[in-house]
Amino acid sequence: xxxxxxxLLAILALSLxxxxxxLIPSAAQADSGGATISGLPESSSVQVFAEVSHTCYTGQxxxxxxxxAAYSASSGCPDVFDATHGAWxxxxxxxxxxxxxxxxxxxxxxxxxxxxCLYVYSEGSFSLVGQSHPFDRVTGREILPPPPGPPPSPExxxxxxxxxxxxxxxxxxxxxxxxxxxxxxxxxxxxxxxRGYFSTRSTPCENRTYCVVMGFRCYGRYAGRLxxxxxxxxxxxxxxxxxxxxxxx
Length: 249
Description:
Helix content is 14%, strand content 37%. It is mainly beta. The protein has two domains: 32-142, Immunoglobulins (Immunoglobulin-like, Sandwich), CATH 2.60.40; 156-247, no CATH class. The strands form three sheets. Strands 10, 11, 12, 13, 14, 15 and 16 form a seven-stranded antiparallel sheet that branches. Strands 3, 4, 6, 7, 8 and 9 form a six-stranded antiparallel sheet that branches.
């Protein structure tokens, strides 16, 4: 019997090694998207530039693609992609990367103000991941939504939040509502500002004052006024009662 003990232990160790990866929870997927609309000279069409990012489960390739749909701004973006409003589709990707689209759109029948909605198709379903600002076809300009009243200071806006990362020597911090995981807060920060405090990696949101990331509506503020995220280094994000506050110093 003793001769078989080492062999049994080896088989047991191999079985655990094969099963253990399946027991480890996969990282949650994190998708985001942003789009800008501009007018085309002497044309009723508009030009759209879109960027969509998708994160596959850790260490696993995945088939996915991005789509864009156009709607009247008064209708808003539905949660599910409707092909009858489709305006663009990216190539099929197999890894979590960023895909971009630059396309013309004829918003005939959508009214004066239009919006472009961005979706990711993965694992058999579509998810709304972002949208453009409403675009006024008459003025040829984007329309910024009215922001919520700015807090008197960044510290006051932290009431009821927990610190995911305490302030460092340059004043950078990350805070979120108890119902928001610190990992989600970190992903939102990365989509707005890049992966690190001193990142040179560009993001779809960096030159905007407002961006939707993972369902959070984020605003860049400085001295109580809306400014691009690349200027403010500060963001206040809300999704219903959930909140994330980011400062990268």
